[in-house]
Write a structure and sequence with these properties.
Rossmann fold, 2-enoyl-CoA Hydratase, Chain A, domain 1, 3 domains, N-(1-d-carboxylethyl)-l-norvaline Dehydrogenase, domain 2, single chain, alpha/beta, 31 helices, globular, eight-stranded mixed sheet
Length: 718
C-alpha cells in the first residue's frame, strides 16, 4: 500500500501500475470536501516519493465516480472576501497540478456519474475511459459559479473552445456517446471491462504505443488556435449562450466565457490564476448565494420527505377519480414511474380524454427519442380506464380529481370510502377547498389528506401534501411516499384556504389588480416582472391558469382572508370573466391568442382589454418599474412569512422551494425568504412601511418586525 486514508487509497496492482481509488468510508458518495482534498495532497506526495510506480489508474469504489466538491462547504467559503476565495481554489489547483505533472501516464476509469470536481479530476489525467453506464459533466453554472479546479482551463485545450464553452455554460451532463464524440473521453466500454481497459491503456503508454507526454503538454500550453479562429469561436458561443441565459439574471456563464477568453493564450499556471479570479467573482454574486442555497434547500426538502415517508404503508396500486386533463396527467405520471393506476370516470368520453392526455406525453417522448414504442405500450398498459368501482377493493390510495365543487367532491369521496379497504388512503387534488371540511362527511377522516398537483402534472415537480385536522401520520406519510414514487417533490403543509402556494399567489394577483385599478398598464407589468425573472408576468399567468379558475380561487381566498384578500372594488379578472374572456382556453383574456404557422400559441396585446377595463380604473398612470416590483413582491413575500407564522409550512427552505417549484419564483433569487434576506430585513421592513397605506397585504408581518429588531435572518449569515 502506497497510501491509505479515509477517502483515498493508493495501491500497486501489477507491472508497476498503481491504482488511486476514491472510496469515502464515512459517506455514501465521493466528494471533494476539505478532508478529501487534504488526503489527495498526501496521496500525491506519496506517489511523488514512490520509485515503483510506472503508471496509474484512477477509480471509484462508489456507484458514483465523484459527485464533485462538497457544496455544504461553499456557504462558508463564499462568505469570504473575493481574494481569499481565489487563493483557496488556487491552492487546491496546485495539488491538481502536482498530480498532473507526475512522471508517468495516468488514466481515469469513470464508472458512474462524474460531476464538477470529479470531472476536473479526470481532466488532470492523460486519458479517460468511461463506462457505458456513466455520465460526465461540469454543472457548476447551475450553482451560479463555473469550474474552479482547472476545468475551464483544461477542457478547451482538450476538446476545443466551442465544445468546452457549451458544456461549461449549459452545465448539462454528457452521456457516453456524446462525451466520446467531442473527445471528453477517449473510450467507452462495458462496465465490467472498465478497470481492465484502463490498465490496458496505461500499459500501452508505458510501452510507448501512445504518446501520453504529448497529451500532458497539450493541457499545460496555450490553445492551438490562431487569433481569427479564436474570435470566431468566442463570438459564435456568445450568441448561443446569451440567448439561453440572461447574463443579468445568470451571470456565471458570461464570467466563465470572459475568463476563458482571457486565459486561452496563457500557459496552464497563469491561466489558472485567471480562472480562480473569475471563480471568486462568480461566487460573490447574489445569484450564486441563491442557487447554492436552492441546492441545499432541495436536499433538505427531499430529506424531510424521506423522514415522512418512513411511516408509509406499501403502495402497489393507486387510483384516480376524474379522467380529464388533470386526472389523465396524474395517471400518466404514476404509470410512467412503473405504478399501476385505475382511472375512473362516469363518462366514456372523459376516459378517452384522460388516455389521450397520457398518450400525448408519451408520443412527445417518442418524438424526442426519450421513449421507445415498447415503453409507451408498457406505460399505457399500467393505466386501467373504468366506468365503475369494480376494481377498487384492493387499491392502496385513491386520488380524487373531480370538478372543484365541494358538493360533488363530498358525494364522490363518501361513495368511494364505502368501496375501498379500511386502510386505503383518500387524497383530494383540490387547489382551494379545506381538507378538514372535505373530511367532515367521511367515516374515516384520519385516512384523508390533500394531494395538490400543479398543472401541467408531468412538468411541475411540486406536490402539496395537506394535513387536515384529523389526518393521521400514516395517511400523510403514504401520500408523501406516493408523490416520491411518482417522481415529484412533496412538501407537507397544514390546512388553510389555498394551502401554501395559492395562499401566497393570490395576494400577488391582488397587488397586480390594485396597480391596474390605479391606472397601470398590464403589458408593462408583465414585461417588468419577466425582466425581474418570472417565467411570465401576472396577466399572462392568469390567462394560462384560466380567468374563470382565478375568479373562483379569488372568491375562496377573499372568504378565508377578508382583511387582505377581499378588495372593495371590481377586479380585472372579474371584468374579463363577465365578458367571457377566459384566457388561453377560449383564445381571449388579457391577451389575444392565435396559433402561428408552426401551431404554436402566440399572444398579442388586445386593445379591447383596455377598453373593457377603462370604466373601472381611476386614470391611466405611469409607474416606475421598481415600484411595480416592490408592490407585487411585498404582497407575495408577506404572505409567505404569514404562512410561517401560522405554521402552514414548517421551514423557510420548504416555503422557498414550494414557491420556486409551484409558481415559478425566479430560482436565481432563491425564493421569498431568501429574497427578503438579500434585501436585508431592515430595508424590507422599510419597504413594507412605505406601502402599508395600500392595505393589510402590504403591512409587515410581526415575524418580520421581530426578526429585524433582533438582527435575525431566515438563513444563517456569516
Amino acid at each position: 500500500m502506497i497510501y491509505q486514508g479515509n477517502s483515498i487509497s493508493v495501491s500497486l496492482l501489477e507491472d508497476g501500475i498503481a491504482k488511486l481509488n476514491y472510496d469515502n468510508q464515512t459517506e455514501s458518495v465521493n466528494k471533494f470536501d476539505q478532508a478529501t482534498i487534504k488526503e489527495f495532497g498526501e496521496a500525491v506526495t506519496a506517489l511523488e516519493q514512490s520509485s515503483d510506480v510506472k503508471g496509474l489508474i484512477v477509480t471509484s469504489g462508489k456507484k458514483v465516480f465523484i459527485a464533485g466538491a462538497d457544496i455544504t462547504e461553499f456557504v462558508g467559503n463564499f462568505k469570504k472576501p473575493e481574494a481569499e476565495i481565489a487563493s483557496w481554489v488556487l491552492d487546491i489547483n496546485k495539488t491538481f497540478n502536482r498530480f498532473e505533472d507526475l512522471p508517468f501516464p495516468k488514466v481515469a476509469a469513470i464508472n458512474g456519474a462524474s460531476m464538477g470536481g470529479g470531472t476536473e479530476m479526470t481532466l488532470v489525467c492523460d486519458y479517460r475511459v468511461m463506462s457505458d453506464k456513466a455520465s460526465i459533466g461540469l454543472p457548476e453554472v447551475k450553482l451560479g459559479i463555473f469550474p474552479g479546479f482547472g476545468g475551464s482551463v483544461r477542457l478547451p485545450r482538450i476538446i476545443g473552445i466551442d465544445n468546452a464553452l457549451e458544456i461549461i455554460a449549459t452545465g448539462e451532463a454528457q452521456k457516453p456517446a456524446a462525451a466520446l464524440k467531442v473527445g471528453m473521453v477517449d473510450a467507452v466500454v462495458a462496465a465490467d471491462q472498465l478497470e481492465a481497459s484502463a490498465i490496458d491503456l496505461v500499459k500501452k503508454c508505458i510501452a510507448g504505443d501512445l504518446d501520453w507526454k504529448a497529451r500532458h503538454d497539450e493541457k499545460i500550453n496555450p490553445v492551438k488556435l490562431n487569433a481569427l479562429e479564436q474570435a470566431m469561436a468566442f463570438n459564435s458561443a456568445k450568441g448561443v449562450l446569451f440567448s439561453k441565459a440572461n447574463p443579468a439574471q445568470y451571470p456565471a456563464p458570461k464570467i466563465a466565457l470572459e475568463s476563458i477568453e482571457k486565459h486561452v493564450n496563457l500557459p496552464r499556471d497563469k491561466a489558472l490564476e485567471i480562472e480562480s479570479a473569475g471563480f471568486a467573482k462568480a461566487a460573490k454574486t447574489p445569484q450564486a448565494e441563491s442557487l447554492v442555497g436552492l441546492f441545499l434547500n432541495d436536499q433538505a426538502v427531499r430529506k424531510l420527505a424521506k423522514t415522512h415517508s418512513a411511516k408509509a404503508h406499501d403502495i402497489k396500486e393507486a387510483a384516480v377519480l376524474g379522467a380529464g386533463i388533470m386526472g389523465g396527467g396524474i395517471a400518466y405520471q404514476a404509470a410512467s414511474k412503473g405504478l399501476p393506476i385505475i382511472m375512473k370516470d362516469i363518462k366514456a368520453e372523459q376516459l378517452d380524454l384522460g388516455m389521450r392526455e397520457a398518450s400525448k406525453h408519451l408520443s412527445s417522448g417518442m418524438a424526442r427519442g426519450k421513449v421507445t414504442p415498447v415503453q409507451m405500450g408498457e406505460t399505457l398498459s399500467r393505466i386501467r380506464p373504468t366506468l365503475n368501482y369494480g376494481d377498487f377493493g384492493e387499491t392502496d390510495i385513491v386520488i380524487e380529481a373531480v370538478v372543484e365543487n365541494p358538493k360533488v367532491k363530498h358525494a364522490v369521496l363518501k361513495e368511494v370510502e364505502g368501496l375501498v379497504k379500511d386502510n386505503c388512503i383518500l387524497a383530494s387534488n383540490t387547489s382551494t377547498i379545506s381538507i378538514t371540511y372535505l373530511a367532515s362527511v367521511l367515516e374515516r377522516p384520519e385516512n384523508f389528506v390533500g394531494m395538490h398537483f400543479f398543472n401541467p402534472v408531468h412538468r411541475m415537480p411540486l406536490v402539496e401534501v395537506i394535513r387536515g385536522e384529523k389526518s393521521s401520520e400514516e395517511a400523510v406519510a403514504t401520500t408523501v411516499a406516493l408523490a416520491e414514487k411518482m417522481g415529484k417533490v412533496p412538501v407537507v403543509v397544514n390546512d388553510c384556504p389555498g394551502f401554501l402556494v395559492n395562499r401566497v399567489l393570490f395576494p400577488y394577483f391582488g397587488a397586480f389588480d390594485l396597480l391596474i385599478k390605479q391606472g397601470a398598464d398590464f403589458v408593462q407589468i408583465d414585461k417588468v416582472m419577466e425582466k425581474f425573472g418570472w417565467p411570465m408576468g401576472p396577466a399572462y399567468l392568469m390567462d394560462v391558469v384560466g380567468i374563470d379558475t382565478g375568479v373562483h380561487g379569488a372568491e375562496v381566498m377573499a372568504e378565508g382572508f377578508p382583511d387582505r384578500m377581499k378588495p372593495d372594488y371590481k377586479v380585472s379578472g372579474q371584468i374579463l370573466f363577465e365578458a367571457n374572456r377566459l384566457g388561453q382556453k377560449n383564445g381571449v383574456g388579457f391577451y389575444k391568442y392565435e396559433t402561428d404557422k408552426k401551431g404554436k400559441l402566440v399572444k398579442t396585446a388586445d386593445p379591447q382589454t383596455v377598453e373593457l377595463l377603462k370604466p373601472f380604473i381611476d386614470a391611466p398612470k405611469q409607474f416606475e418599474d421598481q415600484e411595480i416590483i416592490d408592490r407585487l413582491m411585498i404582497a407575495l413575500c408577506n404572505e409567505t412569512v404569514r404562512c410561517l407564522e401560522d405554521n402552514i409550512v414548517s421551514t423557510p427552505a420548504e416555503a422557498d422551494m414550494a414557491m420556486i417549484m409551484g409558481i415559478g419564483f425566479p430560482p436565481f433569487r432563491g425564493g421569498p425568504c431568501r429574497y427578503i434576506d438579500q434585501i436585508g430585513l431592515q430595508n424590507y421592513l422599510a419597504l413594507c412601511d412605505k406601502y402599508a397605506s395600500l392595505g393589510k397585504a402590504y403591512e409587515a408581518p410581526q415575524m418580520i418586525r421581530d426578526m429585524a429588531a433582533n438582527g435575525k435572518t431566515f438563513y444563517p449569515q456569516a
